[in-house]
Amino acid sequence: MSKQPQHISPLKNFFAGGFGGVCLVFAGHPLDTIKVRLQTQPKPGPGESALYRGTLDCFKKTLAKEGLLGLYKGMAAPIIGVTPMFAVCFFGFGLGKKLQQKTPNDVLTYPQLFAAGMLSGVFTTAIMAPGERIKCLLQIQAASGQVKYAGPMDCAKQLYRENGIRSIYKGTALTLMRDVPASGMYFMTYEWLKYTLTPEGKSPTELSVPSVLFAGGMAGIFNWAVAIPPDVLKSRFQTAPEGKYPNGFRDVLRELIREEGIGSLYKGFNAVMLRAFPANAACFLGFEVAMKFLNWIAPNL
């Protein structure tokens, strides 16, 4: 069983989750900048060495050339997108918990927390699916050097012109396959670790900052351990030419395993895990701090 504060307010979860999303972007953006720069660096010519030898080299060179602000380039767009997404995500989790309580004093079991987390994944898919489709198309465009879209809005307009709203939402089923179980794992792991790390006789709301950071970071790791395979399939499917995979994700899965083996389902594992811990640790710390503030200014909300 999981001990938790008894009064659940989905509305407070919404605002605290939004603040947690801002913290996640702020903590995770430098590694995201490095990841994109490594992914899009030009191929070295004969006798030339690569622009960046790896993650650490890219970090050092960016810091030396552009200073600390160089690591935060392009942060406005993810903050605008991530803040409402995490607000909706935490709102969905709060609502999922509240729906399963018969009385405000009910303590939820871990399977119930997993189910509440899965509901949050359903909520965020409506926002995530089109955003992910556009982001993936722009990322592969940057790598190929062929400019078809001037930016996110232009990409959305062109997709809509080509095949209507269906084209913008291409890959929704795969986004659901990724986010529903991964969100369940995300929130259940966090609540389980919070409860495990709470000293005897204390409440999980009194958890120390290092404990919150550890629980949040590990929740991010567990989330992505579940999410990476469907994420790889989703990226492939969303960036494929129209009609390439008539049977959807089954065709993508068959092609990927046939051509690159089962290990290809965990592509980008290191980069994702490296970013998952600090970004999600910051997210949950931001959430807990905002929740304490909201409980202080509006205890009965």
From TrEMBL:
Solcar repeat placement: 8-99, 108-196, 207-293
Record GO terms (molecular function): O-acyl-L-carnitine transmembrane transporter activity
GO cellular component: mitochondrial membrane
Membrane topology, from the record: Multi-pass membrane protein
Catalytic function, reaction form: O-octanoyl-(R)-carnitine(in) + (R)-carnitine(out) = O-octanoyl-(R)-carnitine(out) + (R)-carnitine(in); O-acetyl-(R)-carnitine(in) + (R)-carnitine(out) = O-acetyl-(R)-carnitine(out) + (R)-carnitine(in); O-propanoyl-(R)-carnitine(in) + (R)-carnitine(out) = O-propanoyl-(R)-carnitine(out) + (R)-carnitine(in); O-hexadecanoyl-(R)-carnitine(in) + (R)-carnitine(out) = O-hexadecanoyl-(R)-carnitine(out) + (R)-carnitine(in)
Homology family: Belongs to the mitochondrial carrier (TC 2.A.29) family.
Protein's name in the database: Mitochondrial carnitine/acylcarnitine carrier protein
